[in-house]
From TrEMBL:
This is MerR family transcriptional regulator. Keywords: Activator, Coiled coil, DNA-binding, Transcription, Transcription regulation. It comes from the Bacteria. Residues 91-118 form a coiled coil.
Amino acid sequence: MLRKVKEVADLTGVSIRTLHHYDRIGLLSPEHVTEAGYRQYSDRDLETLQQILFFRELGFQLKRIGEILKSPDFDREDALLLQREALLEKRARLDRMIRTLDKTIQDAKGEIEMTDKEKFEGFDFTNNPYEDEARQRWGDEAVDRSNQALANVGPEGQKQIGVQMEALFRKLAAMRHQNAASDEVQQAIGEWHAFLNSMGHTYSPQAFKGLGQLYIQDERFTKNMDKFGDGFARFMAEAMAIRANRLQS
């Protein structure tokens, strides 16, 4: 079914002006345009618009949304699950802020006395963790550079990189029952960090730590890594966090 721009605006609550803007910047261009120049939106276009609105609700910039939607790795179902998780967390945070506001009103009336800590419960000024997750899943400039680096070395070079990666993983997996902060483990984790940095992108301590967290937050990573030994993903996340913290101190 095809819908005119006004019909889409009436259906979704998104203004015609906004829809025209999305078209101009290449974020959402309708599949069909009549000979007279009228935009006609398909069901697939509406699905894309829904994705855009979910991402906007979560604080993503239009440019970043466009990058995600155009990524060859983008998966709609995966995105919907991530958005659901993010919105549930946002709802929980808003509930905390409402409780703080209710207490503040009571405090102002003299009915209760709030502690300084209670006055700021629910506020969160950290970076959007779901945008970080989206970057990990659907690519960014760092991923592009890594892919280009792989392309530059050719098939034989890629095969050698795979051999090196597996060797490092097996070496680290054999240490997974040791203390992650030990000198031996940290030396091996340093080798893993150096290996990643040789792949066309420099991993800052924070990015290296974030990658380790992804190993345990994304079940796909966990499942693949734990093939080297039960608990390997968690061990890597812990060891990588320790290295990152030491580099930042």
